[in-house]
Design goal:
With 430 residues, the protein is an alpha/beta fold. 44% of the residues lie in helices and 14% in strands. It contains 21 helices and 15 strands. The chain has a six-stranded mixed β-sheet with strand order 1-6-5-2-3-4, with helices on both faces. The longest helix is centred in the middle third of the chain and has 16 residues, at 173-188.
């Protein structure tokens, strides 16, 4: 059994833990849980840190429990929020939960016969029959309002600087989450809850309930909230969240997010988001520092995380797509791309549409470059560019007599035109 706390420390994944936690873990296999609110039908890379906490926990010989918060998802955690979020109905939550379950299966072993096989639970299953009167009688009386008011997540929302205040629904969130910990302590012998540093207050409410109601001892472990060196928010791109679902964020865009991290961030992220060992990471960092322009760290980081989330085949496709803008591609490699990846690669490129009728008759190069598209200013400009041998169709040089036809279509509807090395145009047939 590996020392889990030491593993977190060298990876930069430990923010705080209760006294005695390390000794508690070294005694025998322990169960720990992390909660995930199913507020969307996919997790995003902001969820990767707590997921990796559970994954490392299992690799150290302990049993991870992933709690999908069907009940708490109906309330909304106020931690780190300045306003109350929209509440979801049960049907939407159930759909989201199933999607989240499938994604967690990429990181945790739920299916083996090992003693520390992961467990997935849903707090809606034990909260749905719990009446309000039973809850305030059996749980609420054990925690004082003074105790709850002292939590940062509450103080920040009801302070003089807060404009909206805090609903009673949100105020009770820490009690509901605390009860989850007590329930898992009783039913699954779960003695540890883990989460981001902003969850400390909610987690310690659970340890209080275990002490006061369960006559036991619960422990808390938190990880740092991940930040980027430039001050921008981790897990966000220009298009919003970077999701783990390929339908929301293509594997190509996912890979690009990691590839475009700064040197400083890559050194930090490769410890947190991969399972590479200490020696391998130290060697990669040293190699990178000798030749930063080769971006060895970013490439390895992108490979490891993309394979972990999407699999080796999707990583290879993302890598091949990444080479396209740098000239290392052919017409055949372009035609292998699915529509979403193709559009992601050429995001922002000037587009024009031609009718399927015009296209089916065969589209001449003057029409494709000027007459039908206005990519170039005039037919004369198009002829000059073609005589200069600077025009390519799907990365292959063409002359003025070339006719674009269905054989040139990418994803059955696009043709990529290029002038010189860097100027692209996208022709869409519809």
């Amino acid at each position: 059994m590996k020392n889990f706390i030491e593993e977190l420390q060298w990876r930069g994944m430990l923010h705080d833990c209760m006294p005695g936690t390390e000794e508690h873990l070294l005694e025998k296999m322990r169960s720990a849980y992390v909660g995930f609110d199913p507020t969307a039908d996919s997790l995003h890379i902001g969820n990767l840190v707590p997921i990796m906490l559970l994954a490392h926990y299992q690799r150290c010989g302990h049993r991870p429990i992933a709690l999908v918060g069907g009940a708490t998802g109906m309330i909304g955690d106020p931690s780190g929020k300045s306003s109350e979020r929209n509440l979801l109905d049960e049907k939407t939550l159930r759909h989201n939960q199933e999607c989240v379950k499938a994604q967690l299966g990429h990181f945790l072993d739920f299916t083996s016969d090992a003693e520390n096989a992961a467990i997935l639970v849903n707090n809606y299953d034990w909260m749905k029959e719990f009446s309000f009167l039973e809850f305030i009688r059996d749980v609420g009386k054990h925690i004082t309002v003074n105790y709850m008011m002292a939590k940062d997540s509450v103080k920040n929302r009801i302070g003089s600087e807060s404009k909206e205040g805090m609903s009673f629904t949100e105020f009770t969130y820490q009690m509901v989450q605390g009860y989850d910990f007590l329930h898992l302590f009783r039913e699954n012998d779960t003695t540890i809850q883990m989460g981001g540093s902003d969850q400390w207050g909610n987690i310690t409410t659970g340890t209080e309930l275990i002490r006061r109601i369960g006559n036991g001892k619960g422990y808390a472990i938190t990880c740092p909230l991940i930040t980027k060196s430039d001050g921008s928010k981790f897990g966000k791109s220009e298009g919003g969240n970077v999701w783990l679902d390929a339908k929301r964020t293509s594997p190509y865009k996912f890979y690009q997010y990691w590839l475009n991290t700064s040197d400083e961030d890559a050194e930090k992220y490769i410890k947190i988001f991969t399972f590479l060992d200490k020696e391998t990471i130290a060697s990669l960092i040293a190699e990178h520092q000798e030749a930063p322009h080769t971006r060895i760290l970013q490439k390895r980081l992108g490979e490891e995380v993309t394979v972990l989330v999407h699999g080796a085949e999707e990583y290879e496709k993302a890598l091949e797509a990444s080479e396209i803008l740098f000239g290392k591609s052919t017409s055949e490699s372009l035609k292998k791309l699915d529509e979403q990846t193709f559009l992601d690669v050429f995001d922002g490129v000037t587009q024009a549409t031609v009718s399927s009728e015009d296209f089916s008759a065969g589209l001449d190069m003057i029409g494709a470059l000027a007459a039908k598209t206005n990519f170039l200013k005039s037919n004369g400009d198009a002829r000059r560019a073609l005589k200069e041998n600077s025009i390519s169709v799907n990365k292959e040089k063409v002359k003025e007599d070339y006719i674009i036809s269905s054989k040139d279509l990418i994803a059955e509807k696009y043709v990529l035109l290029q002038r010189g090395k860097k100027t692209y145009f996208l022709l869409k047939v519809e």
